[in-house]
UniProtKB/TrEMBL annotation:
Organism classification: Bacteria, Pseudomonadati, Pseudomonadota, Alphaproteobacteria, Sphingomonadales
SUPFAM superfamilies named in the record: DNA breaking-rejoining enzymes
Gene Ontology MF terms in the entry: DNA binding
InterPro entries membership: DNA_brk_join_enz (IPR011010), Integrase-like_cat_sf (IPR013762)
Keywords, in A-Z order: DNA recombination
Residue numbers spanned by region Disordered: 194-219, 424-445
Name of the protein in question: Tyr recombinase domain-containing protein
Record organism: Sphingomonas endophytica
GO terms under biological process: DNA integration; DNA recombination
Domain of life: Bacteria
UniProt key word Chloroplast: no
């Protein structure tokens, strides 16, 4: 058993620690779950099968949740668990929410970051002797007093980015929208506790996130076709390792999609996003549940079809056993990338462009939407193309062609061909392989 006075982690009767011999050496290279068994009157243990603390904590959480006897309270008559928000810690609610829901979502990293901000607030309160701390329960966390204190603290807490060595590399003031994103995630965790079967909490939050229009700044920065051409020339420069950025620019210009959706485009058959000759591409891969940031089905512009076909050709040349994780449009020597933030920042510096918050990769989506709108794209088409409008039941069967947006993008691409010849193709010769048939869409009227 561990010789530490304080375990690494504890929930209910279970605690996590290293299993040590009397001389202090480890019995096992893996972390161990301990608990006291009243029937045998001894401490029992079970291996987590991992030496990584985060994985071991998850193993303990799973064991705790599977133990019906660890409910907060029981009815003396029927023996069924009774939900008591006053006996269920907020930190446990957050851990269970991530384990049972958040970590299984495509946005798991975002969910984790938002909830860790709430945990940081609890730690700060604990250290300062504030009204809240690590023992804050769900009943307290559901109160208006809690969220008021959290918002006041968060407003003064900067956003920090850390490198692989956990050293802060970037720091900026936190926006109200960032704070409200954590509030929304906190609400989701508390409601998850109340919705559990059986419920773990009998309280729901007495507050809501502030409306987006109240906390989000209007982003006014846009770039024109000339700036887009400069970006393409930079990304397509021969002999430079800028392939992932080049592909990201092509995907963005062809779809006006969010950066995450562009990085998620794949030709792998199991994702069912695109097939040779297909006139459409589904930005929502097979198995991904749609959320508020909707990913639509879009027409495939000829330049995108060229890149997708070439990527598929390379994918099919691989032996079947090497195809897992390959086939992404935006990749770095075949490997998928989560984002192009580093390459993007280097490009802005090289091109002597501003590097403020409004100049992050989202700038492409905002700029292309503005260019398309100013070139005749109708509101209805643009909303559907960008995923801002949920399709009707009719559109579920009859896929929209968004002719005014396609016409606008076709004009933008033609201008980019003139300003930056060859940069829209996979080689710097400007030559394009034969393309699958793509229906020509005319402007109405």
């Amino acid at each position: 058993m561990s010789g530490h006075a304080t375990p690494i982690y504890r929930r209910g009767k279970y605690w996590l620690d290293w299993d040590r011999k009397r001389d202090g050496t480890l019995r096992s290279p893996c972390l161990t779950i301990f608990w006291y068994d009243p029937d045998s009157r001894r401490i029992r243990s079970a291996s987590t099968r991992s030496a990584i603390e985060a994985e071991a904590i998850k193993a303990l959480d799973r064991r705790y949740l599977a133990d019906a006897g660890e409910a907060a309270a029981f009815c003396e008559t029927c023996g069924q668990p009774i939900a008591q928000a006053s006996a269920y810690l907020l930190t446990d609610a957050i851990a269970d929410y991530r384990l049972e829901w958040g970590d299984k979502r495509a946005s798991a990293d975002t969910i984790k970051t938002r909830l860790l901000h709430v945990v940081d607030f609890l730690d700060a309160q604990e250290a300062a002797g504030g009204a809240f701390g690590i023992t804050t329960n769900c009943a307290t966390a559901s109160s208006s007093a809690f969220v008021t204190a959290f918002r006041a603290w968060s407003r003064l807490e900067p956003v920090r980015w850390r490198n692989g060595k956990n050293v802060v590399t970037i720091e900026r003031p936190r926006s109200p929208a960032s704070t409200e994103a954590s509030v929304a995630q906190l609400i989701a965790a508390l409601n998850h506790a109340a919705n559990a079967e059986p419920p773990r909490s009998d309280k729901r939050p007495a507050y809501r996130p502030l409306p987006a229009g109240q906390v989000q700044r209007t982003r006014r920065t846009r770039v024109g076709v000339e700036e887009l051409a400069k970006m393409l020339r930079y990304a397509a420069e021969p002999g430079k390792r800028r392939g992932s950025l080049h592909r990201f620019l092509i995907g963005s210009i062809s779809t006006i999609a969010r950066p995450g959706a562009v990085c998620d485009i794949s030709v792998a058959p199991d994702r069912q996003q695109w097939a040779p000759g297909s006139e459409t591409i589904d930005l929502n891969p097979h198995g991904r549940t749609q959320n508020k940031k909707r990913r639509p089905v879009l027409p495939v512009l000829p330049i995108l079809a060229e890149w997708l076909q070439a990527e598929l050709d390379e994918y099919l040349m691989l032996p079947p056993e090497r195809r897992a994780g390959r086939g992404y449009l935006v990749n770095y020597y075949g490997r998928a990338v989560k984002d192009v933030d580093s390459a993007w920042a280097a490009m802005l510096t090289e091109l002597k462009m501003p590097t403020g918050r409004e100049w992050r990769p989202y700038l492409l989506r905002h700029s292309l939407a503005t260019l398309a709108r100013n070139r005749g794209a109708t509101r209805w088409d643009l909303e559907g193309f960008m995923g801002h409008r949920a399709p009707s039941q009719t559109e579920t069967y009859a896929i929209g062609e968004f002719p005014t947006v396609v016409a606008a993008l076709t004009g933008i691409i033609a201008e980019l061909h003139r300003l930056a010849p060859g940069t829209l193709h996979r080689t710097d010769t400007g030559a394009s392989r034969s393309l699958p048939h793509v229906r020509e869409v005319q402007m109405p009227g």
